[in-house]
Write a structure and sequence with these properties.
Length: 402
Amino acid sequence: MTSVEPSSPRWGTTTKALVALAGLVLLAALLVRFRTIVPLLIVAGILSYLSLPFVRAIHHRARLSWAASTTIIFVYWLAMIVLASTAAGLAVVQQLQALIVTLQRLLEGVPARLAALSEQPIALGPWTLSLTTSEIIPLVERGLSTVEPLFSRASTLVAAGAAHALETLAQLIFVLAVSYFLTVDHDRIRSSWTGITIPRYEQDLSRLRTALAGIWHAFLRGQLLIVLIMAVLMTILMSALGVRFALGLGALMGVAKFVPMVGPFSAGAAAALVALFQTSNPFGMTPVAFALLVIACTTLLDQLVDYLLLPRILGNSLNLHPVIVLVGAIVGATLAGVIGLLLSAPAMATFLLLARYAYRKLVDLSPWDPPIDAIRPWTPPVLPRLWLRRRPRVGTEPPPAR
C-alpha cells in the first residue's frame, strides 16, 4: 500500500499580504543598506547585456564554448580599460576638469561683460541699438548664483575620480567580475526569468516581457551608440572650428545626449561660452560672431543626429514626451545620482507601461484592447514638420472614393 503525500495547505489572503509586505520591506532595507553597491551592479548588468552579441558571435562562428567566448570578450574589455586608463583617459579627465573650471570662471565675468556691452551701441545696418542691462544684470547674477555651485561640484567630482584611482580600479574589477559571471550564466538566468509565471496571467507576462525587452534593448544598445557617435562628431566639429577643450566638449555633449533637448542645449551653451571668451579663432571673426557660428554648427549637428540616426537606431520604443523625460531625469538624479540620471528615460518608459497595465486592470478593462504595448509613430523632436513633408510621387495618389 502506497502512502499518499499530504498536500500543503494554501495560504490565505491575509498571509499572502503579510508575506508580500515583509518581502518588500526586506528588499527596501537591503537596497538602503547596500546602496553603494547597487550602481555597480547596474553597470555590471549593462556591460553583460552589451557583451552578449559579441560572445554569441564568437560562440557560433569560432565554434568555441560559451565560457571560452565570454573569457575572450572580457579579456578584450580589460585591455580596453587599461588602454583608456593611460593617455587617452587621462586626457579626457584633464580636459573635462579644465573645461569645468574655465566655465566657472567665465560665468563669474558675465555680469561685467554685460555691463561693458551696455556702454557700446551695436550697429545693425541703418539701425543702432543700445542695450539696457540695469535690470538684466541682477537676474543674471541670481541665475549664476544657482549654476556656479553645480560647476564646483562637478569639478570636485572629476578631481575626486582622478585622485581615487585605486578605489576606481577596485570598482572596475568588481564590475568586470560580476558582469563576467552574469554573462557566463546567461542561459540559466534567462530561463529562470522566463520561467516566472502566474496562473491565468501567462499571456500578460509574456507580452509585458516583450515590451520591456524592447524598451531596454533600444536604450542599452541604441542610446549608448548615439552617445558615442555624438561625442566623436562633437569632438571633430569643435576641433575643426578651433574651439578650445574640443575633447572635453565632445565628452560633455555625449553625456548630455542622455537628456533630450535640455542636455544638448546646455552642452551647446557651454561650447558657445568658450568660443565667446576665446582670445582668437582661425577665421579672424569677432567673438560674438564666432560664438554664433559655434551655436549654429552645434544645433545643426544635433538636429542631423536626431533626424538621421535616432529613428534608425532607437526606433520607437522610447518615444516619450520631453516633459516626461525631464521629470524622470530630475527624479532619477535625486534618487540614484548619475546612474539614475542616465537610466531615467527607460525607467520612465517602464513605469508608464506598468502604470497603464495596472490602471486597465483596476478599472476592469483589457490591457490589450487597445494594446498598451503598441508603439506610437516616431515624431520629429524640434524642427518644423513642414520640412519633412514629402510630395507624393506621380501615380501614388489614392484613387478617389466612389
